[in-house]
Task: structure prediction
Amino acid sequence: METLRQVQSFGSFVASNRASLLVFIIILVTCCSSLHTRARPLIPNSPFLSIWNAPTEICTEKTGVQLDMRPFHLIGSTLKTSTEQNITIFYADRLGNYPYIDENTGETFNGGIPQLCFMEHHLKKANEDINFYMPSDEQVGLAVIDWENWRPLWIRNWGSKDIYRQESVEFVQQKDLSISETRARTLAKMEFEAAAKSFMLQSLKLGISMKPNNLWGYYLYPDCYNYDYNQNPHNYTGSCLDIEIARNNELNWLWEESTALYPSVYLETALRSSKNAPLFVRNRIQEAIRVSNVSNSTCPLPIFVYTPYLLFYSSLHICFQDDLVNTIGESAALGVSGIVIWGDLNLTLSVNTCRTLDSYLRHTLNPYIINVTMAAKICSQALCQDSGACARKNWNSSDYLHLNPDNFVILMSKNGKYAIQGQPSFQDLQQFIEKFYCRCYAGYNCEPREISSCDFCRFIWISPIFCASNGTSAFQFSSINYYLCQRNTGHIFM
Result:
């Protein structure tokens, strides 16, 4: 078996060295009390979901390379021909008549600006598109609208997006040739923001009404525009500026209608494997957590953090393990609902790229996904009794939900199956409770409780009713079965 050790320690969980050896401890764990709550998991008892959103089925269909997707809870392709998936992404040409301007050619589509869109035609087409891509009314999953050409706040259409402000001013002037430039800009701003709000809201409401079993939201929302790492790399804090937080507050109408948030933590070249990367990511996630409570603080929105696939940064350069920690690890440690790993056709260009992708999945990404997913699950059971998700006590720290490499090792056998071998220590538990707390799921009761006389089977993994007489316990985790041979080898097989 090939050993795949992980490099980060994680505040581990309550356990004993043998099932017959009880660990007697009295620890007061405040699950939630007055602290933040979190959205319920999309999949029961799965506090942190790993989701794959890339057209990698092409590798199997065209090159014969079978990619190992077992660690992922949800899998969806980005291809225009793919339908009935548990994660659906709607680009500009896949949902209604989205108005936009080609920034390179200046060509306008569907009126170009939202003020000129025929809403009735748009909603009719959107209805057809939703039924095409999501034919089932029972399908549960994520619905992500990816419209990036313009932003609903006038002030945020800077740079190449200024064309929408220019066209909006010209539209006002065409209606009144005598209007002043200042007045035209004032009216243009009002009209643009009203039309943009209406367009985004009505599109969102249509999707929710048609497919309520899916979590609807806009990709890249919220954003906090903490992109100043190039201007001031040595003193970069990652903080979201107060002005951007205030502008996000102007979008409360969007947060109140969304049923999920999909912020992005894409790492540009200057951030990759740098000390600024975790600062960039955690501040963006923290702003999403703040926004998730706008509509109802007792029932916050689920947050699924988008990160582009980390293999093909440029050419075929393999990303460092640090960047997995800085994106996936940060997301899990902050207690969000999950991570969405996105990729495009560059992942499947040839047999060689597919083989490189396959190797990276098997030897780097998948073991890390298993590590973090298991750690989050174990923490949820230990601190929250499956009624919440663990999150850092200090959100701006570098504490991660990782299996302790001194006590655990992830193995891969010749047939490609993974196993986790090891047992936790009492020191793991102490570190775990010191660094994390439980964010209770909305609607669940998380009163402070005492942990005493806990053994491995009854407390950590499963309820006593599921403890098999042969010493092998199991719980279903999406499409993956994790097994704990607690009385024999101390292995968890997958």
User: Anything to note?
Assistant: The first strand starts at residue 2 and ends at 4. The radius of gyration is 24 Å.
